[in-house]
Amino acid sequence: MKSTHYWREVVAEFWGTLFLVLLGNGSVASAKLSQGADEGWFAVGYGIGVTVGVLIALNTSGGHINPAVTVALAVTGKFPWKKVPGFVLAQFLGGFVSGPLLYMTCHGIIEKVEEGSDRTERTRGIFATYPADGVGIWEGFADQVIGTFILCSTILALADSKKGPFVKGMLPFLVGLTVTGIILSFGFVAGAGINPARDFGPRVFTAIVGYEDVFSAGDYFFWIPLVGPFVGAIAAALLFPSCFGFEPSTADSD
């Protein structure tokens, strides 16, 4: 593993994830803080965020921008395990840094909505996912597992060595479109996080700036968007090759 190239990959994952979460959560902020905005724009904003994030990082690191995707690719042999820790750390850090950047841009509007200095459930959903009323632990967990399974299955299909250059060139758009579809279909349950870095990093930031119950809300829901996507990703990595004839390439040694 060449040190200089590896660190460029890590930095690319940081920036790609940062742009993904900043654009995605920015669309959530626009909907929540603007009167009459359609919350369906969450899905569009996140789809665009994913497309931009993958485009930024694709040629340098492969554009994983999601710890669950990195693990899925490693399980299939398309990505070396020795690179996983650095990629995952960069992705979580990128997600975290998106928090203060977004908060800085909409701080005044948040103050107005909150009607004071307290930070409550009225705006905390801008930064992290929370379950809808009536959603239990196992429903939330299934939401994360199924959504990430769909995402990683799509990515593994696009990464198949038999796919032509046209499909590979369309990869950022196709992955973004997939994320849009997942959020439109499952977002009403618990936000369809499907990316541990997208949820946990900004959630930690909200705890730092004083938001209430960010870890205890929803019967300690926070662990579900952190763990569930990895379960869905590993399931996709184990089942997809045998079901669809996917031929994983050997991970490079750089």
From TrEMBL:
Where in or outside the cell it occurs: the entry states: Membrane
One GO cellular component term of this record is: plasma membrane
Q: Which GO terms describe its molecular function?
A: glycerol channel activity; water channel activity
Query: What CDD domains does UniProt report for this protein, alphabetically?
Result: MIP
Keywords of this protein's UniProt record, alphabetized? Membrane, Transmembrane, Transmembrane helix, Transport
- A Pfam entry, by short name: MIP
Q: What is its main location?
A: membrane
What is the membrane topology listed in the Swiss-Prot or TrEMBL record?
Multi-pass membrane protein
Query: Does the entry feature the keyword Protein transport, yes or no?
Result: no
Q: Which PROSITE patterns match?
A: MIP
Please explain the role this protein plays, according to its UniProt record: Aquaglyceroporin that may modulate the water content and osmolytes during anhydrobiosis.
Which family is this sequence assigned to?
Belongs to the MIP/aquaporin (TC 1.A.8) family.
Q: What is this protein called?
A: Uncharacterized protein
Q: Which organism is it from?
A: Cyprideis torosa
High-level lineage? Eukaryota, Metazoa, Ecdysozoa, Arthropoda, Crustacea
